[in-house]
Automatic annotation (TrEMBL):
One of its GO terms (cellular component) is nucleolus. InterPro entries: Brix, PPAN-like. GO terms for biological process: ribosomal large subunit assembly; rRNA processing. Coiled coil: none annotated. This is Brix domain-containing protein. One of its GO terms (molecular function) is rRNA binding. Residues 22-177 form the Brix domain. It is found in: Nucleus, Nucleolus.
Amino acid sequence: IGQGGARVTSASVAEEEYGTVLHSFVFHRGLVGKNIDQLVTDMRRVMEPYTARALKVLTEPVKNVLKDFVTAAGPLGVTHFLIFTKTETNVNLRLARLPKGPTLFFHVTKYSLIKDVVSSLKRHRMHEQQFSHHPLLVLNNFALDGMHIKLMATMFQNMFPSINVHTVLFVHSFNNM
């Protein structure tokens, strides 16, 4: 197969995979400020290509209610919500599985924005192709035992498609020919 045939094959495999993969919405609730708004945008980049990159969240005077997102999620195949909120003392993240849960609640204690990471690099190397594949998530050897840790690990693992190592290596080496 020539290079053009490989692209067509790769595109059809990607389209077939896209329909069976879990999708997410990343958004904020309430007034969060400029940094948290940027964090939401950065998390959308991390969750690409299986998230709504240009999701519009309406704020004052007309604002979206959670039911608006749930209603839109069904027809679009969205299975997870990542919802950021901010109080006077905390930044919070709720990770919700649709349609019936569970929902996990986290306090965000530290975070770095993409712009801060890029500005700290001596050599800036960031390409749009980095966001064309879902993130690689490795969850093993958690230090704590308990059902809540297992639930959290399972929730995170089920947010992304599983990786077939043989296919990834084959497609990567085939595209570099």
